[in-house]
Amino acid sequence: EYFGQEDSTACGTCDVCRSTGASVPADRLSLADEIVRYINETLGGVYTLDQISLRFGSSVHASSDHYIGILRDLIDRGEVPAPQSF
């Protein structure tokens, strides 16, 4: 609202949503779970952004901004490590 945005859905992860106690939308939570499993179980916790992009970038429910935002949040919360260099 500060920047004039009047219609938006709660992401559950930004500072505004966290401060108001908004819940994480189910589709975002589901994709986050998929990303965590893929990184930790399939890739053994070592990955590059290219690997994540190849796996989730063409997903019907994951635009590049969407899955990268989720990945950043997962890294910030310590659920997955930061990606390795290229």
Question: How does the SSE layout of this entry go?
Answer:
Elements: H1 15-20, H2 26-42, H3 49-56, H4 64-76
Helix pairs in contact: 2-4
Describe the structure.
The mean pLDDT is 77. The radius of gyration is 14 Å and the shape is elongated. The longest helix is centred in the middle third of the chain and has 17 residues, at 26-42. α2 packs across α4. The protein has helices at residues 15-20, 26-42, 49-56, 64-76. The chain is mainly α and 86 residues long. The N and C termini lie far apart (38 Å). The protein is built from 4 helices and no strands.
Mind telling me the C-alpha Rg?
14 Å
The SS-based structural class is mainly alpha
DSSP helix count? 4
Overall geometric form: elongated
Nearest-integer average pLDDT: 77
SSE string: HHHH
Percent helix range = 40-55%
Strand content: under 5%
Gap between N and C termini: 38 Å
Biggest sheet character: none
Q: What's the number of extended β-strand segments?
A: 0
Q: Unreliable segments (pLDDT under 50, ≥5 consecutive)?
A: none
Task: Give a quick set of tags describing it.
86 residues; mainly alpha
What is shown here, in short?
With 86 residues, this protein is mainly alpha-helical.
